[in-house]
Structure formats: C-alpha cells, structure tokens
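Lab notes, practical 5.
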Amino acid sequence: MKLPFAGRLLAAAVLSATTLLPFSVAHAESSEKPKVALVMKSLANEFFLTMEDGAKAYQKEHASDFDLISNGIKDESDTSSQIRIVEQMIVSKVDALVIAPADSKALVPVLKKAMDAGIVVVNIDNQLDAGVLKSKNLEVPFVGPDNRKGAALVGEYLAKQLQPGAQVGIIEGVPTTSNAQQRTAGFKDAMAAAKMNVVSVQSGNWEIDKGNAVASAMLNEYPDLKALLAGNDSMALGAVSAVRAAGKAGQVKVVGYDNINAIKPMLKDGRVLATADQFAARQAVFGIEAALKKLKGEKVETNDKGVIETPVELVTQP
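Output from the prediction step:
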C-alpha cells in the first residue's frame, strides 16, 4: 500500500531529477571560486531532499566561498546513473565532489578517476568499502555518524518494550551499502544483548514500497512477530502500513532510522516507537566543510579509521 506522503515524495523526486540531470548549479559560477558537487542517493527519500536543502542554505550563507552543484538519482539502487553523474562532474571540472554513494564498492573506480583528475573527494552518508579503496591505493575521508551505534541505540530502546525471546524482524537497506550493513549489525547487537529472537533479515532497498512488501511477508510468515526494525524511516513508513493492513496496529512495534519529517506524527501517536537522528540538513554541510578545507590545503582531522564522526541521537515519542 503506497502512502499519500510517498506519492508526494516521488513527485518531488521526479521533478528534482528532471531539473537536476545532468546537473544544476545552485548559484552563478565564478572562475575564482571552487565548484563543489554534491552527489546524493535517491531524491524520493526525504532524507536526501533535506540534505540538499541544508547544503543549498549553507552555500547561500557562504556564497563568496564556493559554488554548489547538486544532484541525485531516482531510486536507491540506480548505481549506474550515479556513476554517470560523477563522470559528468569530471567533465565539468568541478574542484570537489561530496558523495553519498549508492553502492560502497561500485562507485570506487569512477571516484578514482575523479581523484586522478585532481578533484577532491569526500564521502558522506554511506562509507566506501575500505578493502576496495585500499586495492586502488585511495584514501577518501568519510564524514558521517557511527551507524552501528545509532542503530544499537534504537534497538536497545525497543528491547525495553519487549519480553526476552520475542520474535523480531529486520528490514535492511541496500545490502551492498556499508551503512545498511552497519545498521543491521547495530540492531543485531541490541537484540542479542536483550536475548530477542531475530527470525528474519530482508532487504527493503531503503524504499517505502519495498519496505511495505517485506514487512507484509514477515508478518504473514511469522504471526507471533512482535517488532520490525527498519534501517531507515522510509522503510519504517512501509512497515507501519503493513502492520495496519495486517490488523496488528499496537501489537507489532516499528522502529526506524533518520528522523525524517514524515515519521514525526507517527512517533507522536505511537505508530513508530523510535528512530535515530543523524541530522540530515547538516550531513552534506559537514562534507562540504571538509572538502573546502582540503581545497585550501588544510589538514582534515580524522580518526584512525579515516572517519570524521558526526552526531547521531535516539529520538522517541515527544
């Protein structure tokens, strides 16, 4: 069942994709200012629309410092389109590229091509695969939260509402992405610590409709299911619809991750128990700030894993 809000987001995504592809320049270009390209994932996901808005607002406040080019893909798994966008940015000779990769491995070769062309690359949202980066002799700073820790916070809160041994299902994001893997790991950490029974882990591809289908299948296969842990709020929206359609509202708890606006009424009325806020409006800004520092030749401080860690917080009923 598609939610009305999902339709509005999809319409916004199609409109954005139409206006953004091949790319849009947020402000007039200047040969004296660096051009920073922001390449996001699905614009059907409110999280990335919020990310783009935050980046544009930041550029407006710092209009004399850089020009912003923003772009995104139509759905979470459209890796080939994201690769083409990066190739366009190389041809456009941007100075820096801040990217939330749709796939942790598949984007590395084209990002190497960008770096070989002298473009500064900063990774946000979904961390590039460390092994593939090493194989290409690349070092790309990752700016983002500890997804495993954030998911564990959500899972721990959920576990307090359940009895040990309760059956739970995990709706995972795109399995080839590091943030999906880390969030699933965080959920599993919390469920294991609380002695819950994880009966199923299936991918919802980060999307509302797919999350709804997966949740429906789990509810049908496991009639005693007590909770659904969704790797993002879009999939949680789908799960809420599935729970309602199954006649189990109030019986099966749902949690998510991202704290998008669409989830907030559901937190308030209890349809969603908890989520995690990784501050979407600031996510790209953190990456842009790191890219501008690198362009100036300033050192970007990272931890021993090459990460600039940003905040993530548990969000529950207001």
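Observations recorded by the TA: Confidence is low (pLDDT under 50) at residues 1-30. The domain at 4-144+280-309 is CATH 3.40.50.2300 (Rossmann fold).
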